Amino acid sequence: MKVRVTWKWWTVPPCHYVISWTGMPDACPLVRVSFLASMLARELTAAKVMLLCCFHSYAYSTPVVITGLTDNTKFRSLCSKWNLLTTYGDRQVRLSTANTYSYTKVDMSFRDYVDDLLRPQSPDVLGSDTLYMFGDNNLSEWRSLLDVYEPPAFLLPGTHRAFSFGIAGPGTGVPFHWHGPGFSEVIYGRKRWFLYPPDEGPPFHPNMSTLSWLRDVYPGLPPHQAPLQCTIRPGQVLYFPDRWWHATLNLDTSIFISTFLG
Prior knowledge:
Layout: E1 2-6, E2 16-20, E3 31-34, H1 41-58, E4 64-67, H2 73-78, H3 81-88, E5 92-97, E6 105-109, H4 110-117, E7 131-134, H5 143-146, E8 161-168, E9 182-188, E10 191-196, H6 210-216, E11 228-232, E12 236-240, E13 245-250, E14 254-261
Parallel strand pairs: 3-4
Antiparallel strand pairs: 1-2, 4-12, 5-6, 5-7, 7-8, 8-14, 9-12, 9-14, 10-11, 10-13
């Protein structure tokens, strides 16, 4: 099977390559909930109330893909290349290495990150050698943008929201790791997720990129060791429970935001 990893965010020169491996299913085996644009306002409200009431039935045990939960059209328009570079181009951003423990941090201007590092990832480059913009940034400098974002309404008892905003090139991603529960929404592009329950640790090396893991490890996994997986697109939110192992792969140049419940 071939999976096309493309350079699609904003208007940029064509640049894409194809990564091939076998066995990746197209269907998402995770629980799905959809809110349709054709719903009447009262129907939509009733459906969201029902989902809120049911949230605790899966919040501690099951990843869920939710479509149409929020309307972030305005937020998406503010994430255009022109607007982000005009507003934030000279701001400093902190980049992390795209490995499991993300020890190394590098500061540079957002404009330099977009111009110099936002490029397709080679599967031969280690995650520990890849710089990635996600979290670790001065949220006060991005407050005017993040205040427009409409997060999922659900919270777990005793938790509050913490946002992490990210932009990354095609083929990049973070290898397997775990943390507390939260939501991840794609604003531009597509993000592939690979998930394992807390008691089923995946076979991986913490410095191996997700792309090289797919090329070198994934094809040889026996069926009982295969991860749950799904591709999240704009308008979709993935809920991940506490301590679930997960790795991500950006299939396109992607903008995404996570809401951690801590």
